[in-house]
Structures are given as structure tokens and as C-alpha cells.
Amino acid sequence: MDLPNNSNEHRIFANDYAYQTLFSKIVAIELPPGASISPIELSKELGISRTPIQRACSRLAENGLVNVFPQRGSYVSLINFDKVYESFYLRNLLEQAAVRNVCRLPDRSEIVFSLNQTIYNQRQELDHKNYIRAFDLDNRFHHLIYDAAAMNYIEQALAYIAADQDRIRHLKVLSELRIDSTLEEHFKILNAIENGNADEAAHNVYLHISKFAEDMSAIHRKYPKYFSNWTADEDIKIAPVKESFYNFELERGRKE
User: Residue 137 and residue 141: Cα distance in Å, rounded?
Assistant: First the structure.
């Protein structure tokens, strides 16, 4: 790997590179929950010194993805159920707002085509067991909705708190859980958007996201040691709350 020549640029690049690499490895379960993080091995693998890796561990500790124990080392944190629940609850509200915004577009042909193509490609990757690529396409499906809704900043803010959620989603794909039903849920969201039916689109988003309770239970049964806490299956649920995000926009318009 070629690093910038300037020493300050080199340091910043190495720090960011170490952070992004570790973050990706943790979220993709290449470094599973509870795994020890070896600065020596990662230094050799990434071609950088141990210092940026140690700094990356400190940053990831702030995000709750790494536990740093003095004199003992750094370890990938276990999945926190409460954090997953909160991020899914927020995603439920925001994505309903996003699809409602998309359904208001006068011309939805481009977004419909892109969503349909993404579902098709995801099906192909899953059939060939290309799970990482399939996960990326799953993310792309939801990104396309936020992008068409002009809610990119909200999508970025949600991504910041959704790392544990994404670890669950990666484990779901790797475990081949609910593949057909997940794609069918995507198709229902797509069809509602194509028809411009905002209520149906928002309801299908809720049904899709609320399935995380079923996914979480199945993942916990398969990987119980990956979790730091757990709630009984019957307590896992998301209330069918309709989004009220655009009430703020209405109030702002009145003030202006």
C-alpha cells in the first residue's frame, strides 16, 4: 500500500485507514464478537505501524465496538441488544418518512428501475453464495430510497449508531436466514413506491424492519456467545408507529 509522503498526511491517512479497516472487519464479522485484536498482526497485514491501530481501537471503543483493557489488550465488543433495538426503532421511523417522500415524487421511474435491478442482483449474488456482495446490495436498496428522498444526512446519522444492527444483518445473510421472504419484502416496498401509495409503502417498511425480532432470535440461538445481553423472544417488538417526521417540516413552513 502506498501512503502519502508528507509525514502529517501519512499519519492522518494511516489513522483513518486503520479505523475504517477495523470497523469494516468488525461489522462484517471478520472479527467476530469477543475476538482479540492483535496490533502486531494487523500492522503486518495493513502495512502500517501499531500506533494507528491502537488509536483506531480507542475510537472504536467510543463507538462501543471495542473494549480496551489496560495490560490485557483490545477485544471486539459483544453485540448489545439494547443498541440494536434502539437503532431499529429509529430506522423504522426514518425509513417510513423516506418512502413517503419518494412516493410524492412526480416521476418515480428511475428509482423504481434502480430498486428492481438491485433486488435482481441481490438474488443472483445470494444464489452464488456471495454473501458480502449480497449484503452490500441490501444496503444499496435502502440507500437508494434515502437518496431519492433527499435524506442523505439522516441516512449518515443513522449509520453512525447502527453498527450493532449491521452485525446482526451480516450474520443473517451469512446464516442464509429468511432470504426469500426478505427479497419479497423488498418487492412489496418497491411495488408500493411504483404505485405511489405512501401508506402502503410505509406499512411495508414497518413489516420489513419489524422482522428483526425473528432474525435476532434465530441469530441468538445460533450464536449465543456473541451477545452481551438478551431479552426473551416475546419481549422483542417494534410498535407500529407511523412516522411524524414531516410534522416538523409543516411547522417550519408555518413559521416562515
Answer: 6
